[in-house]
Amino acid sequence: MREKAVPTMDSRERSDIADDARGGRGTEPMPRRSRDLLAPRLARTILLAALLSYTLITMLNILSTTISTTQTVVALGSLGAILGLQLKHSAAGANRMPLRVKSLTLSVQALLTYVPFTVFHTGWGSMAGFLAGSVLLLLRPRTGWTLYGLVGLSMLVPPLLDRLPVLDVIYVCQSTLLTGLVTYGLSRLNELVSEVHAARGELARMAVTKERLRFARDLHDLLGFSLSAITLKSELIHRLIPAHPQRAMNEIQEVLAVSRESLADVRRVASGFQNMSLEQEISSAQSVLNSADIGVDVMVSLTGISPQSDTVLATVLREAVTNLLRHSRAGHCTIHAVQRAGRVSLLVINDGIEPGYRDPSPHSGSGLGNLEARVRAIGGEVEAAGGADRTFRLRAEVPSHPSAAAASLAEEIAEIRDPAA
Fold first, then answer.
1. What is the pLDDT of residue 74?
2. Are the C-beta atoms of residues 233 and 254 closer than 8 Å to each other?
3. How far apart are CA 321 and CA 299, in angstroms?
4. What are the transmembrane regions (predicted)?
5. How confident is the model at residue 38 (pLDDT cuts 50, 70, 90)?
6. Residue 49, Cβ neighbours under 10 Å: how many?
7. What is the Cα–Cα distance from 226 to 248, expressed in whole angstroms?
8. Least confident range of 24-28, 87-91, 147-151, 192-196
Protein backbone atom coordinates (compact mmCIF):
# COMPACT_ATOMS: atom_id res chain seq x y z
CA MET A 1 0.00 0.00 0.00
CA ARG A 2 1.35 3.41 -0.94
CA GLU A 3 2.05 5.61 2.05
CA LYS A 4 0.69 9.12 2.14
CA ALA A 5 3.16 11.92 2.47
CA VAL A 6 3.26 13.29 5.97
CA PRO A 7 3.42 17.11 6.11
CA THR A 8 6.73 18.34 7.46
CA MET A 9 7.75 21.63 8.96
CA ASP A 10 9.56 24.11 6.80
CA SER A 11 12.66 26.02 7.89
CA ARG A 12 10.61 28.96 9.13
CA GLU A 13 8.57 26.74 11.46
CA ARG A 14 11.75 25.13 12.77
CA SER A 15 13.16 28.58 13.41
CA ASP A 16 9.99 29.59 15.23
CA ILE A 17 10.21 26.54 17.47
CA ALA A 18 13.86 27.26 18.21
CA ASP A 19 12.98 30.84 19.07
CA ASP A 20 10.18 29.63 21.35
CA ALA A 21 12.61 27.31 23.11
CA ARG A 22 14.96 30.21 23.74
CA GLY A 23 12.12 32.28 25.16
CA GLY A 24 11.19 34.47 22.19
CA ARG A 25 12.29 35.83 18.85
CA GLY A 26 14.35 38.56 20.38
CA THR A 27 15.32 40.00 23.68
CA GLU A 28 14.81 43.63 24.55
CA PRO A 29 17.82 45.39 26.06
CA MET A 30 17.77 45.74 29.80
CA PRO A 31 16.82 49.29 30.80
CA ARG A 32 19.63 51.39 32.14
CA ARG A 33 19.64 52.22 35.79
CA SER A 34 17.75 55.50 36.08
CA ARG A 35 18.95 58.44 38.12
CA ASP A 36 15.96 58.22 40.46
CA LEU A 37 17.42 55.03 41.92
CA LEU A 38 19.78 57.34 43.83
CA ALA A 39 16.83 59.15 45.47
CA PRO A 40 17.14 57.47 48.91
CA ARG A 41 20.87 58.24 49.06
CA LEU A 42 20.22 61.82 47.95
CA ALA A 43 17.52 62.28 50.62
CA ARG A 44 19.90 61.01 53.32
CA THR A 45 22.63 63.33 52.04
CA ILE A 46 20.33 66.36 52.21
CA LEU A 47 19.23 65.47 55.74
CA LEU A 48 22.82 65.00 56.91
CA ALA A 49 23.89 68.27 55.27
CA ALA A 50 21.10 70.18 57.04
CA LEU A 51 21.92 68.70 60.45
CA LEU A 52 25.63 69.38 60.00
CA SER A 53 24.88 72.95 58.93
CA TYR A 54 22.83 73.68 62.04
CA THR A 55 25.53 72.07 64.18
CA LEU A 56 28.23 74.11 62.45
CA ILE A 57 26.30 77.34 63.03
CA THR A 58 26.09 76.61 66.74
CA MET A 59 29.78 75.68 66.80
CA LEU A 60 30.71 79.00 65.18
CA ASN A 61 28.54 80.83 67.72
CA ILE A 62 30.38 79.08 70.57
CA LEU A 63 33.84 79.70 69.13
CA SER A 64 33.05 83.37 68.66
CA THR A 65 32.54 83.83 72.42
CA THR A 66 35.25 84.24 75.04
CA ILE A 67 35.28 80.95 76.96
CA SER A 68 37.91 78.69 78.44
CA THR A 69 39.46 75.75 76.62
CA THR A 70 37.67 73.31 78.94
CA GLN A 71 34.31 74.89 78.17
CA THR A 72 35.08 74.76 74.45
CA VAL A 73 35.91 71.03 74.62
CA VAL A 74 32.74 70.33 76.64
CA ALA A 75 30.67 72.34 74.15
CA LEU A 76 32.10 70.52 71.14
CA GLY A 77 31.57 67.15 72.85
CA SER A 78 27.97 68.07 73.64
CA LEU A 79 27.41 69.15 70.04
CA GLY A 80 28.76 65.80 68.80
CA ALA A 81 26.54 63.86 71.22
CA ILE A 82 23.43 65.85 70.21
CA LEU A 83 24.22 65.33 66.51
CA GLY A 84 24.60 61.58 67.09
CA LEU A 85 21.28 61.40 68.97
CA GLN A 86 19.56 63.42 66.26
CA LEU A 87 20.85 61.10 63.54
CA LYS A 88 19.45 58.19 65.55
CA HIS A 89 16.08 59.93 65.94
CA SER A 90 16.00 60.87 62.23
CA ALA A 91 16.70 57.34 61.05
CA ALA A 92 13.92 55.44 59.26
CA GLY A 93 11.76 53.53 61.71
CA ALA A 94 13.05 55.38 64.78
CA ASN A 95 9.47 56.01 65.96
CA ARG A 96 9.04 52.23 66.30
CA MET A 97 11.69 52.00 69.01
CA PRO A 98 10.46 50.85 72.45
CA LEU A 99 9.02 53.65 74.57
CA ARG A 100 11.70 53.06 77.20
CA VAL A 101 14.47 53.67 74.65
CA LYS A 102 12.76 56.74 73.20
CA SER A 103 12.26 58.22 76.67
CA LEU A 104 15.91 57.65 77.53
CA THR A 105 17.35 59.19 74.35
CA LEU A 106 14.97 62.17 74.47
CA SER A 107 15.86 62.78 78.12
CA VAL A 108 19.59 62.74 77.34
CA GLN A 109 19.04 65.08 74.38
CA ALA A 110 16.96 67.46 76.54
CA LEU A 111 19.68 67.47 79.20
CA LEU A 112 22.40 68.19 76.62
CA THR A 113 20.20 70.92 75.14
CA TYR A 114 19.21 72.93 78.22
CA VAL A 115 22.23 72.63 80.55
CA PRO A 116 24.64 74.44 78.15
CA PHE A 117 22.22 77.41 78.04
CA THR A 118 23.49 78.34 81.51
CA VAL A 119 26.91 78.99 79.95
CA PHE A 120 26.35 79.82 76.27
CA HIS A 121 22.92 81.48 76.46
CA THR A 122 21.36 82.27 73.08
CA GLY A 123 24.40 81.02 71.16
CA TRP A 124 23.17 77.49 71.89
CA GLY A 125 19.75 78.12 70.36
CA SER A 126 19.89 75.82 67.28
CA MET A 127 20.22 72.75 69.44
CA ALA A 128 16.76 73.37 70.92
CA GLY A 129 15.46 73.10 67.36
CA PHE A 130 16.88 69.57 67.15
CA LEU A 131 15.01 68.66 70.34
CA ALA A 132 11.78 70.13 68.91
CA GLY A 133 12.19 68.01 65.77
CA SER A 134 12.97 64.87 67.78
CA VAL A 135 9.78 65.01 69.86
CA LEU A 136 7.77 65.27 66.62
CA LEU A 137 9.60 62.29 65.14
CA LEU A 138 9.40 59.93 68.11
CA LEU A 139 6.18 60.71 69.98
CA ARG A 140 2.50 60.50 69.12
CA PRO A 141 1.14 63.54 67.27
CA ARG A 142 -0.77 65.07 70.19
CA THR A 143 2.11 64.66 72.64
CA GLY A 144 4.75 65.54 70.07
CA TRP A 145 3.15 68.79 68.90
CA THR A 146 2.47 69.84 72.49
CA LEU A 147 6.11 69.34 73.50
CA TYR A 148 7.23 70.97 70.25
CA GLY A 149 5.34 74.13 71.21
CA LEU A 150 6.70 74.04 74.75
CA VAL A 151 10.28 73.75 73.48
CA GLY A 152 9.68 76.79 71.27
CA LEU A 153 8.21 78.80 74.14
CA SER A 154 11.12 77.83 76.40
CA MET A 155 13.41 79.67 74.01
CA LEU A 156 11.83 82.94 75.13
CA VAL A 157 13.63 82.65 78.47
CA PRO A 158 17.37 82.88 77.49
CA PRO A 159 17.08 86.09 75.44
CA LEU A 160 14.90 87.67 78.11
CA LEU A 161 17.53 86.86 80.77
CA ASP A 162 20.15 88.41 78.50
CA ARG A 163 17.93 91.52 78.25
CA LEU A 164 17.84 91.31 74.45
CA PRO A 165 15.40 93.40 72.38
CA VAL A 166 11.93 92.00 71.76
CA LEU A 167 12.71 91.32 68.08
CA ASP A 168 15.68 89.18 69.11
CA VAL A 169 13.49 87.29 71.57
CA ILE A 170 10.96 86.56 68.85
CA TYR A 171 13.74 85.61 66.42
CA VAL A 172 15.25 83.02 68.80
CA CYS A 173 11.83 81.44 69.44
CA GLN A 174 10.87 81.46 65.76
CA SER A 175 14.23 80.05 64.58
CA THR A 176 13.94 77.21 67.11
CA LEU A 177 10.48 76.27 65.84
CA LEU A 178 11.67 76.54 62.22
CA THR A 179 14.71 74.34 62.89
CA GLY A 180 12.42 71.76 64.46
CA LEU A 181 10.10 71.76 61.42
CA VAL A 182 13.02 71.48 58.99
CA THR A 183 14.53 68.60 60.96
CA TYR A 184 11.18 66.82 61.17
CA GLY A 185 10.32 67.41 57.51
CA LEU A 186 13.67 66.27 56.10
CA SER A 187 13.70 63.21 58.37
CA ARG A 188 10.21 62.18 57.31
CA LEU A 189 11.08 62.87 53.68
CA ASN A 190 14.09 60.57 53.94
CA GLU A 191 11.91 57.82 55.41
CA LEU A 192 9.15 58.26 52.83
CA VAL A 193 11.61 58.21 49.92
CA SER A 194 13.07 54.95 51.23
CA GLU A 195 9.59 53.44 51.60
CA VAL A 196 8.56 54.52 48.09
CA HIS A 197 11.78 53.11 46.66
CA ALA A 198 11.17 49.81 48.43
CA ALA A 199 7.52 49.81 47.28
CA ARG A 200 8.63 50.24 43.68
CA GLY A 201 10.74 47.11 43.96
CA GLU A 202 7.77 45.28 45.46
CA LEU A 203 5.53 46.47 42.60
CA ALA A 204 8.07 45.17 40.11
CA ARG A 205 8.06 41.78 41.85
CA MET A 206 4.25 41.79 41.84
CA ALA A 207 4.25 42.52 38.10
CA VAL A 208 6.56 39.56 37.49
CA THR A 209 4.38 37.33 39.68
CA LYS A 210 1.26 38.52 37.90
CA GLU A 211 2.75 37.67 34.50
CA ARG A 212 3.76 34.23 35.76
CA LEU A 213 0.22 33.64 36.99
CA ARG A 214 -1.16 34.68 33.61
CA PHE A 215 1.24 32.41 31.80
CA ALA A 216 0.49 29.43 34.07
CA ARG A 217 -3.26 29.96 33.85
CA ASP A 218 -3.27 30.33 30.07
CA LEU A 219 -1.06 27.29 29.58
CA HIS A 220 -3.47 25.27 31.71
CA ASP A 221 -6.56 26.55 29.93
CA LEU A 222 -5.22 26.41 26.38
CA LEU A 223 -3.08 23.27 26.44
CA GLY A 224 -5.14 21.06 28.74
CA PHE A 225 -7.71 20.36 26.05
CA SER A 226 -5.15 20.02 23.25
CA LEU A 227 -2.98 17.54 25.14
CA SER A 228 -6.02 15.53 26.22
CA ALA A 229 -7.18 15.41 22.59
CA ILE A 230 -3.75 14.27 21.39
CA THR A 231 -3.66 11.54 24.05
CA LEU A 232 -7.18 10.36 23.19
CA LYS A 233 -6.60 10.30 19.46
CA SER A 234 -3.24 8.57 19.87
CA GLU A 235 -4.94 5.78 21.85
CA LEU A 236 -7.59 5.54 19.14
CA ILE A 237 -4.90 5.34 16.43
CA HIS A 238 -3.18 2.55 18.35
CA ARG A 239 -6.40 0.53 18.24
CA LEU A 240 -7.21 1.36 14.60
CA ILE A 241 -3.85 0.57 12.98
CA PRO A 242 -4.28 -3.23 12.77
CA ALA A 243 -7.84 -3.25 11.37
CA HIS A 244 -8.47 0.22 9.93
CA PRO A 245 -5.19 1.72 8.70
CA GLN A 246 -6.89 4.31 6.48
CA ARG A 247 -8.97 5.69 9.33
CA ALA A 248 -5.83 5.66 11.48
CA MET A 249 -4.10 7.83 8.87
CA ASN A 250 -7.00 10.28 9.01
CA GLU A 251 -6.75 10.43 12.78
CA ILE A 252 -3.01 11.06 12.50
CA GLN A 253 -3.74 14.07 10.31
CA GLU A 254 -6.05 15.40 13.01
CA VAL A 255 -3.40 14.84 15.68
CA LEU A 256 -0.94 16.85 13.59
CA ALA A 257 -3.50 19.63 13.24
CA VAL A 258 -4.13 19.68 16.99
CA SER A 259 -0.41 19.71 17.75
CA ARG A 260 0.14 22.66 15.39
CA GLU A 261 -2.75 24.46 17.05
CA SER A 262 -1.15 23.77 20.43
CA LEU A 263 2.10 25.31 19.21
CA ALA A 264 0.17 28.39 18.08
CA ASP A 265 -1.51 28.52 21.50
CA VAL A 266 1.86 28.54 23.23
CA ARG A 267 2.99 31.42 21.05
CA ARG A 268 -0.22 33.33 21.82
CA VAL A 269 0.33 32.81 25.54
CA ALA A 270 3.93 34.02 25.32
CA SER A 271 2.88 37.17 23.45
CA GLY A 272 -0.16 37.84 25.61
CA PHE A 273 -2.56 37.42 22.65
CA GLN A 274 -5.34 35.05 23.67
CA ASN A 275 -8.34 35.60 21.39
CA MET A 276 -10.29 32.39 20.73
CA SER A 277 -13.53 31.51 18.97
CA LEU A 278 -16.37 29.67 20.71
CA GLU A 279 -17.75 28.27 17.46
CA GLN A 280 -14.33 26.91 16.49
CA GLU A 281 -13.97 25.33 19.91
CA ILE A 282 -17.39 23.71 19.57
CA SER A 283 -16.35 22.21 16.22
CA SER A 284 -13.07 20.97 17.72
CA ALA A 285 -14.89 19.54 20.74
CA GLN A 286 -17.28 17.63 18.47
CA SER A 287 -14.37 16.04 16.64
CA VAL A 288 -12.63 14.97 19.83
CA LEU A 289 -15.80 13.65 21.49
CA ASN A 290 -16.78 11.71 18.38
CA SER A 291 -13.33 10.12 18.36
CA ALA A 292 -13.99 8.99 21.92
CA ASP A 293 -17.36 7.48 20.86
CA ILE A 294 -19.26 10.09 22.86
CA GLY A 295 -22.51 11.34 21.39
CA VAL A 296 -22.75 15.11 21.03
CA ASP A 297 -25.85 17.30 20.92
CA VAL A 298 -24.98 20.83 19.80
CA MET A 299 -27.17 23.92 19.58
CA VAL A 300 -25.60 27.29 18.78
CA SER A 301 -27.47 30.58 18.43
CA LEU A 302 -24.98 33.47 18.33
CA THR A 303 -25.35 36.68 16.33
CA GLY A 304 -22.15 38.48 17.28
CA ILE A 305 -20.36 38.87 20.60
CA SER A 306 -17.26 40.72 21.69
CA PRO A 307 -13.87 38.99 21.26
CA GLN A 308 -13.40 39.06 25.03
CA SER A 309 -16.65 37.21 25.74
CA ASP A 310 -15.97 34.85 22.85
CA THR A 311 -12.54 34.00 24.27
CA VAL A 312 -13.85 33.46 27.81
CA LEU A 313 -16.63 31.11 26.68
CA ALA A 314 -14.25 29.22 24.39
CA THR A 315 -11.96 28.71 27.38
CA VAL A 316 -14.89 27.48 29.47
CA LEU A 317 -15.79 24.94 26.80
CA ARG A 318 -12.20 23.73 26.55
CA GLU A 319 -12.02 23.14 30.28
CA ALA A 320 -15.42 21.43 30.31
CA VAL A 321 -14.45 19.00 27.56
CA THR A 322 -11.03 18.39 29.15
CA ASN A 323 -12.66 17.52 32.49
CA LEU A 324 -15.20 15.32 30.70
CA LEU A 325 -12.43 13.29 29.08
CA ARG A 326 -10.29 13.04 32.21
CA HIS A 327 -12.80 12.73 35.04
CA SER A 328 -15.80 10.83 33.67
CA ARG A 329 -16.96 7.87 31.60
CA ALA A 330 -19.47 9.86 29.60
CA GLY A 331 -21.49 8.44 26.74
CA HIS A 332 -23.29 11.63 25.76
CA CYS A 333 -22.60 15.35 25.93
CA THR A 334 -24.84 18.37 25.34
CA ILE A 335 -23.41 21.74 24.29
CA HIS A 336 -25.78 24.70 24.04
CA ALA A 337 -24.68 28.28 23.34
CA VAL A 338 -27.54 30.81 23.29
CA GLN A 339 -27.58 34.59 23.11
CA ARG A 340 -30.48 36.66 24.38
CA ALA A 341 -31.08 40.05 26.04
CA GLY A 342 -27.44 41.09 25.85
CA ARG A 343 -26.20 37.92 27.56
CA VAL A 344 -24.56 34.77 26.22
CA SER A 345 -25.13 31.48 28.00
CA LEU A 346 -23.04 28.35 27.51
CA LEU A 347 -24.34 25.06 28.91
CA VAL A 348 -22.34 21.82 28.90
CA ILE A 349 -23.96 18.64 30.30
CA ASN A 350 -22.45 15.17 30.28
CA ASP A 351 -23.28 11.85 31.89
CA GLY A 352 -21.08 9.09 33.24
CA ILE A 353 -19.78 10.67 36.44
CA GLU A 354 -18.04 8.19 38.70
CA PRO A 355 -17.95 9.54 42.28
CA GLY A 356 -14.89 7.52 43.25
CA TYR A 357 -12.98 8.19 40.04
CA ARG A 358 -9.65 10.01 40.28
CA ASP A 359 -7.42 10.95 37.39
CA PRO A 360 -4.20 8.88 37.69
CA SER A 361 -2.10 11.79 36.42
CA PRO A 362 0.07 13.21 39.21
CA HIS A 363 -0.68 16.77 38.08
CA SER A 364 -4.41 16.57 37.44
CA GLY A 365 -5.36 19.92 38.97
CA SER A 366 -8.78 21.41 38.35
CA GLY A 367 -9.16 24.51 36.22
CA LEU A 368 -12.58 25.51 37.54
CA GLY A 369 -10.93 28.19 39.66
CA ASN A 370 -9.40 29.68 36.52
CA LEU A 371 -12.78 29.66 34.79
CA GLU A 372 -14.46 31.42 37.69
CA ALA A 373 -11.78 34.15 37.66
CA ARG A 374 -12.10 34.64 33.90
CA VAL A 375 -15.91 34.73 33.84
CA ARG A 376 -16.24 37.08 36.80
CA ALA A 377 -13.60 39.34 35.28
CA ILE A 378 -16.07 40.41 32.55
CA GLY A 379 -19.13 40.54 34.79
CA GLY A 380 -20.40 36.99 34.25
CA GLU A 381 -21.11 34.00 36.44
CA VAL A 382 -20.37 30.30 36.32
CA GLU A 383 -22.02 27.30 37.97
CA ALA A 384 -20.76 23.73 38.14
CA ALA A 385 -22.52 20.88 39.91
CA GLY A 386 -23.10 17.14 39.68
CA GLY A 387 -26.59 15.65 39.54
CA ALA A 388 -28.12 12.63 41.22
CA ASP A 389 -28.42 10.88 37.83
CA ARG A 390 -24.60 10.84 37.41
CA THR A 391 -24.66 13.93 35.18
CA PHE A 392 -22.40 16.94 35.43
CA ARG A 393 -23.67 20.38 34.49
CA LEU A 394 -21.47 23.40 33.75
CA ARG A 395 -23.16 26.70 32.95
CA ALA A 396 -21.47 30.02 32.19
CA GLU A 397 -23.20 33.28 31.37
CA VAL A 398 -21.41 36.46 30.31
CA PRO A 399 -22.37 39.84 28.78
CA SER A 400 -22.30 39.97 25.00
CA HIS A 401 -20.27 43.19 25.15
CA PRO A 402 -18.69 43.78 28.57
CA SER A 403 -17.41 47.20 29.58
CA ALA A 404 -13.78 47.39 28.47
CA ALA A 405 -12.58 49.49 31.41
CA ALA A 406 -14.37 47.44 34.04
CA ALA A 407 -13.30 44.17 32.46
CA SER A 408 -9.67 45.29 32.32
CA LEU A 409 -9.64 46.22 36.00
CA ALA A 410 -11.43 43.03 37.01
CA GLU A 411 -9.01 40.98 34.94
CA GLU A 412 -6.03 42.47 36.78
CA ILE A 413 -7.61 41.68 40.13
CA ALA A 414 -8.48 38.15 39.00
CA GLU A 415 -4.92 37.51 37.81
CA ILE A 416 -3.43 38.58 41.15
CA ARG A 417 -5.84 36.27 43.01
CA ASP A 418 -5.65 33.50 40.40
CA PRO A 419 -5.57 30.10 42.17
CA ALA A 420 -3.56 28.56 39.35
CA ALA A 421 -0.36 29.59 41.12
1. 87
2. yes
3. 16
4. 42-63, 123-139
5. low
6. 10
7. 19
8. 24-28
Give the whole-number percent of the chain exceeding pLDDT 90: 19
Cα gap 324→118, rounded to integer Å: 90
Pairing of strands 343-351, 332-340: antiparallel
**Cβ atoms of 372 and 217 closer than 8 Å:** no
**How much is the CA Rg of the chain, to the nearest whole Å?**
37
Beta bridge partners of 381: 397
CA pair distance 116, 132, nearest whole angstrom? 16
What are the percentages of helix, strand and coil residues in the chain, rounded to 5? 65, 10, 25
Distance CA 130, CA 182 (A): 9
pLDDT at 389: 76
For the chain, the structural domain boundaries read: 37-201, 277-421
What whole-number distance in Å separates Cα of residue 263 and Cα of residue 267?
A: 6
Query: What CATH number labels 277-421?
Result: 3.30.565.10
Task: Determine the average pLDDT of the residues in 164-184.
Answer: 89
> Which amino acid, one-letter code, is at 86?
Q
Q: Which of 235, 137, 225 is nearest to 180 (CA)?
A: 137
- In angstroms, the Cα distances linking 322 to 232, 301, 319, 366, 390 are 11, 23, 5, 10, 18
Band the pLDDT of 131: cuts 50, 70, 90.
very high
